[in-house]
Design a protein that fits this description.
Distance between the termini: 22 Å
Oligomer: single chain
Strand content: 15-25%
Largest sheet: 9 strands, mixed
Order of helices and strands: EHEEEEEEHEHEHEEHEEHEHE
Number of strands: 15
């Protein structure tokens, strides 16, 4: 993960039933660092296979159908979905409709379906051209936060009134704080590094923002912990502070590459990994696809308007920009108020 390289290659030939996507733009965020750090454990490397010893980090973005030999997927349409940071991707569409299709390439068939779906912009009521950058940067993170908020609400916050969120300046966490802030009677505490306290407070969705090393200043009311940072030292401190008053620990992601271990005995509940596709499957069964999409659409529009107030989009292109931003994110040096939208060429 510390070594990167870029390879020049011609667009591949496609067979009957396949489509060639030309990647136009994608985002690089701390979410992609989670994909990288958990690439083997969560099979993220399997979506876009590479030669032995290398891996392609997945990203979210937009692509155009450059060539099609698949029924129901015309050339020229624009799609949004899971992509490699590359110029092209070959997919094998299945269940193609006016709104989307699913890639059923052999190496992706057994991977989570949520990552294999490509949305057509011409059939998406939520799509607005002027929001493309925000959808690239925020949608996957917001989608995860929406599902976490729904999960906590469904569980009645496990009887707690305090939500403690790590990596509070990250977009996944701030989106969750935005949603939790709308729930009556819930106090939201954000944990962050000292340098990000001012920015995190400016978001206006936390009742309290606390540097990691001042965790002991937070009242020990019954709490749930949502761990986006994945930092073993922070997790241990949270469990040590709340003990049995910690009602649930949801492990969501990793934005800190250091201290990923931590097998020591923790006070209170054991961390439970929150896997968004599992929750998505449940709610799709509960509400139906249309019901789920309507709830997401109703919540998405006001969230984007809120995000426009603090997220500045910066564009880049080519290998140098991609590697520079990747390393900033990997080293935890990125500006949380800036979102990077990149093009492969």
């Amino acid at each position: 993960m510390e070594t990167t390289r870029f390879e020049d290659a011609e667009a591949p030939e496609i067979d009957d039933g396949q489509v060639l996507l030309g990647v136009d733009s994608f985002g690089l965020t701390t979410n992609n660092i989670t994909y990288a750090l958990m690439g083997e454990a969560m099979n993220y490397w399997d979506f876009f296979p590479a030669e032995d010893g290398w891996a392609r980090m997945p990203v979210w973005g937009y692509a155009d159908v450059a060539e099609s030999k698949a029924e129901g997927v015309p050339e020229g349409i624009r799609v949004y979905g899971y992509l490699p940071p590359a110029s092209h991707l070959v997919v094998q569409p299945d269940r193609a409709s006016s709104t989307d299709f699913v890639d059923v390439s052999a190496h992706r068939v057994n991977l989570p379906a949520a990552y294999n779906r490509y949305l057509r912009t011409d059939g998406n009521e939520m799509y607005e051209k002027e929001n493309e950058d925000y959808e690239i940067l925020l949608w996957p993170l917001y989608f995860t936060s929406f599902l976490i908020d729904d999960f906590l609400g469904d569980e009645d916050m496990f009887g707690a009134k305090l939500a403690v969120l790590s990596s509070a300046s990250s977009r996944t966490t701030s989106a969750l704080a935005y949603l939790l802030d709308k729930r009556d009677g819930i106090e939201v505490v954000g944990l962050t590094s000292p340098r990000n306290v001012e920015f995190t407070e400016s978001l206006g969705v936390y009742d309290q923002v606390v540097p990691y090393d001042e965790l002991d200043s937070v009242d020990r009311d019954p709490a749930v912990y949502v761990d986006v940072a994945g930092d073993a030292k922070v997790r241990s401190a949270v469990h040590g502070h709340w003990g049995d008053d910690l009602r649930h620990d949801a492990a969501v992601g990793i934005t800190h590459k250091g201290d990923l271990g931590g097998s020591e005995e923790l006070a209170g509940p054991a961390p439970t990994f929150f896997f968004a596709p599992t929750r998505l499957q449940k709610r799709t069964e509960d509400w139906g696809p249309e019901g789920l999409n309507q709830r997401l659409a109703d919540a998405w529009a006001p969230y984007v308007e809120w995000a426009r107030g603090w997220l500045r989009v910066e564009h880049g292109s080519g290998p140098e920009d991609v590697e520079r931003i990747y390393r900033e994110l990997l080293d935890g040096k990125s500006d949380p108020s800036v979102g990077h939208v990149l093009s492969p060429e």
